[in-house]
């Protein structure tokens, strides 16, 4: 299913249950497929967030504070090599990072 914002999921519920719009019209308004609209409506149980869903992806290695540190290093040294940046991250945060994306 395409990632939709919470607000858009709420709008889909309103369009269907309060304004009685068709799935096709809702999919055009939301900019997604009919199957995505159907899935949002199927999961709707009073909340637009699936309580059984697992978090997507793997846990992040660096939090926002760590990312701010990385950003400040790059702004201070725009020509820094990745291995040097990795070493600074490890020395400061004691966190290992891969050089691959």
From TrEMBL:
Protein name: Paired domain-containing protein
InterPro entries with a match to the protein in the record: Homeodomain-like_sf (IPR009057)
Upper classification of the organism: Eukaryota, Fungi, Dikarya, Basidiomycota, Agaricomycotina
């Amino acid at each position: 299913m395409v990632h939709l914002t919470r607000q858009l999921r709420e709008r889909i519920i309103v369009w269907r249950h309060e304004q009685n719009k068709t799935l096709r019209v809702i999919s055009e308004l939301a900019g997604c497929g009919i199957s995505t609209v159907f899935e949002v409506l199927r999961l709707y149980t009073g909340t637009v967030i699936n309580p059984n869903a697992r978090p997507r992806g793997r846990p992040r290695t660096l939090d926002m504070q760590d990312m701010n540190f990385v950003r400040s290093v790059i702004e201070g040294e725009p020509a820094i090599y990745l291995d040097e940046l990795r070493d600074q991250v490890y020395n400061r945060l004691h966190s290992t990072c891969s050089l691959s994306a």
